Amino acid sequence: MTLNYTFLLALALILLFTKLFGLITAKVHLPQVVGALVAGVLLGPSCLGILQESDFLVKTAEIGVIMLMFIAGIDTDINELKNTGLAACLIAIMGVFVPILFCGGIYLLFFAETLKFASLMKAAFIGVVFSATSVSITVETLNEMGKLKTKVGTTLLSAAIIDDIIGIVVLSVLTGVGDTSVKPGIVILKILLFFVFAVVVGFIVYNIFKRISVNHANTRRLAVWALAFCFLMAFCAEHFFGVADITGAYFAGVILCNLTDTRQFVAKKVTVASYVLFSPVFFAGIGLKTNIAGITPKIVIFAVLLILGAVASKIIGCGVAAKICKMDWSDSLKIGVGMVARGEVALMVAQKGITAGYISEKLLPAIVLCVVFVALSTPVMLKFCYKNKAKSE
Hints:
Order of helices and strands: HHHHHHHHHHHHHHH
Number of helices: 15
Largest sheet: none
Strand content: under 5%
Number of strands: 0
Oligomer: single chain
Structural class: mainly alpha
């Protein structure tokens, strides 16, 4: 059997183009993710047609998703979650379910002729795509303004983390319920069993890593074992419990996030591996799927309404929740605006929806456009909120 080496050319082009366009977007103060998406669109069937999706690229991209979610989990600050408590929880809950209603409702308005189970599932997947907040964009903006350590900043950070956790749990439920061959009761039972499994395994693995880190806190072997644990949790989640693999990867990170002496070292090593190879393939893969040639006037209108729904749902849902928690109107608005940004997690969920058959690839351009727009507009809106308050004082 002769090995086809074109995958090497595909990798080289993806790495070169994603880095090049990432640097360009960074120069104009845009997220590098935007550059990677543009690179994928340019290389794909929509523009130059140099690259096509292949089994190798799909599996490499899946590894990229798993590693990104593991890094997100290991970066979770449990102490921060405890400090902000009830307010962050309520903001996060509203920040998940209001976008599901708004964005899912927009999908039903455009594409569902009847309210059948399949249509509701597709609408729910669209809603879940826009339920997760991209905390990195908001954190970078608040840090730039010197507002990260304020009450608003810490509440936003915690709410965004909890928001991701709830969104991932909802995704897992939808993924399981979407399998019509399995009864809903069995699905819920398997999801509950997964969390029991995660707690038991987490307790054991955490203590093992805690002991190992006494003598090997900053050695590469610890990072290798941590990544192996991530892949095992991802496999077990998907294979044994019918839960999304990214859920297993995320909770693998959360299990290790309390290793104060080693978490930063492990996160750094895994981030390097992800950044160098797997993440660029994932983001470029989203671009490859984004067929701009198939955009119709209906898709454009849907994208515009989706943007409005994505922005309004976070401002209203999270802002109202903050007000219920006795924050003033100004801080409540900042909380709502700060939760608007979407990014990597939204694209990961969209990818899962496409794989599961609940999101059509025809809708991907609208989703990508919405994610990019809200990611770019959030820093502008957040800075305006702070400047506006400074003028009023």
